[in-house]
């Protein structure tokens, strides 16, 4: 369970609970129940139709229902296990990160809702991380199976989220601005919970209501860069000029506006305030850190050692905070998760430093496709693993970091948090 965000324990006496409290504070700062209502608009002259996609979309829909006095209806699609009860907005659950038929059917129904609107109507779109896989509607000539194949290859390639979403936008009949274009001439308002480095609305969930500055050539180049050979239908689609996505100056997007209601920066600031309230300094390294997960772990370990040895860039006691989205190039067949990989890379680089602890977790409560939000690193993580006959370096090479932390009972398990502002990392130096 997630700790109480308002109760961060003593860092030196209970470092594990201290780190879990910081994570809880970060998640609480992005709770849709609080951040959505501030951005609700005036009622339109016509109908209000609510649609959405993402791991937080059901919780966002509930927040809209609780704070909207008038009539509304609609449909949102979220990941299996992330739904919440709503009275007027239908909640559909579908697969993530590889799309399935349930997501396909939901996306088609959302497009139907958008296409039936007039100039007095308002389409309210609730978009959060995970929406790109959940809002899947392949273009004519491309099957769901072919799109699934490309998606799996991208997930295993080490491509960063912006690259993956560029390809996804160009293999979609709804993303890359196409949803807003379908709703024209209605007003379109999009509320976004950002899970991408840089908080670019065109990248969050592949920007279904935002003009796409990338091109078909960009998408082809990404597949080539990662040596992904697409199915024939995908290749033909990406080579056809008429497959290009709507651009930012498309007149059909003139009535579309976006608001980011929650983002990684605010969650990191909330965690920093919680640390300071407990008497520990906090240094935010950045909210948009990308790169191979284990290598980012090595870099964080180097910064932590510098804090201990030289007091730079901050003197202990201090907690180093960072966000963003790392990647994992899958070479083994183990159970991983990018936060587990980051943490094991960190632990190996620290080599059992007795004054350093860490937590790495995804704010949506799911690290990759596993059942944990993330993991904890203790000073004796490597020692305990080896006592159990586990070789940490071999485990990392086989992308099996989850299994190591599970054996040590150092998983962070929260269940779905119903929000998503991407990865949260905290390295505590005592």
Summarize the structure.
This protein has 430 residues and is an alpha/beta fold. It has helices at residues 15-28, 32-35, 57-67, 101-115, 131-134, 144-157, 161-169, 178-183, 216-225, 232-238, 264-277, 293-310, 338-350, 381-387, 392-397, 401-407, and strands at 48-53, 73-79, 89-94, 122-128, 187-193, 256-262, 281-289, 318-324, 356-362, 374-377, 411-412, 423-429.
SSE layout and pairing:
Blueprint: H1 15-28, H2 32-35, E1 48-53, H3 57-67, E2 73-79, E3 89-94, H4 101-115, E4 122-128, H5 131-134, H6 144-157, H7 161-169, H8 178-183, E5 187-193, H9 216-225, H10 232-238, E6 256-262, H11 264-277, E7 281-289, H12 293-310, E8 318-324, H13 338-350, E9 356-362, E10 374-377, H14 381-387, H15 392-397, H16 401-407, E11 411-412, E12 423-429
Parallel strand pairs: 1-2, 1-4, 2-3, 4-5, 5-6, 7-8
Antiparallel strand pairs: 8-12, 9-10, 9-12, 10-11
Helix pairs in contact: 1-11, 7-9, 12-13
Description:
With 430 residues, the chain is of the alpha/beta class. It folds into two domains: 181 residues, 3-Layer(aba) Sandwich (glycerate kinase, domain 1), CATH 3.40.1480; 231 residues, Glycerate kinase, MOFRL-like N-terminal domain (Rossmann fold). It is built from 16 helices and twelve strands. It is globular and about 65 Å long.
- Helices and strands, in order, run as HHEHEEHEHHHHEHHEHEHEHEEHHHEE
Q: Which term fits the overall shape? A: globular
Percent helix: 25-40%
Low-confidence stretches: none
Please give the count of helices.
16
Could you tell me the radius of gyration in angstroms? 22 Å
Compute the number of structural domains.
2
Strand tally:
12
CA-CA gap between termini: 25 Å
- Beta-strand proportion: 15-25%
Mean pLDDT: 95
- Structural class call reads alpha/beta
């Amino acid at each position: 369970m997630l700790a109480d965000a308002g109760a961060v324990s003593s860092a030196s006496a209970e470092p594990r609970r201290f780190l879990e409290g910081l994570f809880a504070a970060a998640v609480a700062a992005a709770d849709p129940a609080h951040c959505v209502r501030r951005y609700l608009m005036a009622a339109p002259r016509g109908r209000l139709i609510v649609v959405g996609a993402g791991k937080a979309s059901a919780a966002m829909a509930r927040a809209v229902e609780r704070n909207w006095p008038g009539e509304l209806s609609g449909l949102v699609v979220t990941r299996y296990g992330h739904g919440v009860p709503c009275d007027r907005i239908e909640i559909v659950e579908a697969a993530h990160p590889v799309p399935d038929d349930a997501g396909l059917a939901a996306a088609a129904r959302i497009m139907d809702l958008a296409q039936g609107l007039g100039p007095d109507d308002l389409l309210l779109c609730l978009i959060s991380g995970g929406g790109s896989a959940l809002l899947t509607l392949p273009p004519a000539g491309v099957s769901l199976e072919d799109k699934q194949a490309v998606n799996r290859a991208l997930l295993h390639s080490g491509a960063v989220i912006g690259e993956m979403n560029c390809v996804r936008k160009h293999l979609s009949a709804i993303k890359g601005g196409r949803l807003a274009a379908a709703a024209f001439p209605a007003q379109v308002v999009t509320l976004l919970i950002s899970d991408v480095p840089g908080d670019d609305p065109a990248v969050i969930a592949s920007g279904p209501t935002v003009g796409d500055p990338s091109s078909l050539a960009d998408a082809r180049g990404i597949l080539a860069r990662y040596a992904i050979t697409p199915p024939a239908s995908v290749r033909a689609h990406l080579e056809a000029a008429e497959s290009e996505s709507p651009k930012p100056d498309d007149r059909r997007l003139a009535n579309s506006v976006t608001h980011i209601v929650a983002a990684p920066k605010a969650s990191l600031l909330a965690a920093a305030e919680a640390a300071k309230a407990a008497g520990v300094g906090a240094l935010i390294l950045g909210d948009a850190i990308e790169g191979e997960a284990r290598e980012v772990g090595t870099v964080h370990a180097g910064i932590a050692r510098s804090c201990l040895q030289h007091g730079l860039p901050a003197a202990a006691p201090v907690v180093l905070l960072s966000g963003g989205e790392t990647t994992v190039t899958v070479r083994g067949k183990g159970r991983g998760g990018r936060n587990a990989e980051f943490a094991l890379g960190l632990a190996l680089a620290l080599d059992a430093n007795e004054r350093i602890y860490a937590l790495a977790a995804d704010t949506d409560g799911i690290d990759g496709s596993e059942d944990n939000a993330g993991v904890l690193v203790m000073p004796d993580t490597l020692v305990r693993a080896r006592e159990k006959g586990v070789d940490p370096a071999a485990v990392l090479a086989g992308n099996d970091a989850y299994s190591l932390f599970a054996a040590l009972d150092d998983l962070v398990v929260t269940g779905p948090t119903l929000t998503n502002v991407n990865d949260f990392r905290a390295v505590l130096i005592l």
